[in-house]
Amino acid sequence: MFEGRPDRDDEIVLVGRSNVGKSTIMRELTGHSVPTGQKPGVTREPNHFDWSGQSFMFTDLPGFGFMSGVEGEHREAIQTDIVHYIENNAESILAAVLVVDGKSVIDIIDRHSDRGEIPHDVEMYHFLEELGVPTVVAVNKMDKVDDKDERLNDLCDRLGLFPPWQQWDEEVIAPITAKAGRIDSLRTALQGHIRDAKRDELLQFVTA
Ligand SMILES: Nc1nc2c(ncn2[C@@H]2O[C@H](COP(=O)(O)OP(=O)(O)OP(=O)(O)O)[C@@H](O)[C@H]2O)c(=O)[nH]1
């Protein structure tokens, strides 16, 4: 099990396959320097970061899926820990960011579907939906994608969202290039979810 969660009322979690750019996004969002690198699986334990001036924290969860040098069994255990972490802290999670690699996400999803498996990204998206955690899908590495609209429509299709993707823009689907600091759509989506969550909290307070 993961240990040492700081005592914060609210948090935003980042999940995604290894090497999709979660650490890079975290650095862009919070300004904190985190280990990033070519080697998949750099993040094995949750990393918690404060967002300057905010009362909540960001939690970068370990990458799931393939990790070089990590045995299948250990990989499974990390995945179980991720699911438990989200379940146990669902009450305090304001929003989740599911990060995917825009360049490879459709190929990876389809490869697993073709084998009769449920792709991790799709499973995670539905898991978060079932828990009622507002989720933004950050489609990273868009600098490597030529056919942006087609790719994003395909992704909507695989996640069970009706295309065109533009109707989910800045709420569910956020195309970004974290490496170049282009994450505005993610910021906008998160701000919207934080506002909604805070509004619900205040509503509960006045109706209690
Ligand atoms: N082309 C491109 N590369 C990117 C982008 N964002 C991140 N990368 C690169 O992708 C690689 C992985 O980035 P990380 O931020 O370490 O990924 P991670 O998801 O934290 O990886 P794990 O720690 O393995 O889970 C690095 O080489 C980054 O420079 C992007 O927007 N475009």
UniProtKB/TrEMBL annotation:
GO terms for biological process: cell division. SUPFAM superfamilies: P-loop containing nucleoside triphosphate hydrolases (SSF52540). The keyword Magnesium applies. GO terms for molecular function: GTP binding; metal ion binding. Its cofactor is Mg(2+). Keywords: Cell cycle, Cell division, GTP-binding, Magnesium, Metal-binding, Nucleotide-binding, Septation. It comes from the Archaea. The keyword Cell division applies. Gene3D superfamilies: P-loop containing nucleotide triphosphate hydrolases. Residues 8-196 form the EngB-type G domain. Necessary for normal cell division and for the maintenance of normal septation. PANTHER family: ENGB-TYPE G DOMAIN-CONTAINING PROTEIN, MSS1/TRME-RELATED GTP-BINDING PROTEIN. Belongs to the TRAFAC class TrmE-Era-EngA-EngB-Septin-like GTPase superfamily. EngB GTPase family. This is Probable GTP-binding protein EngB.
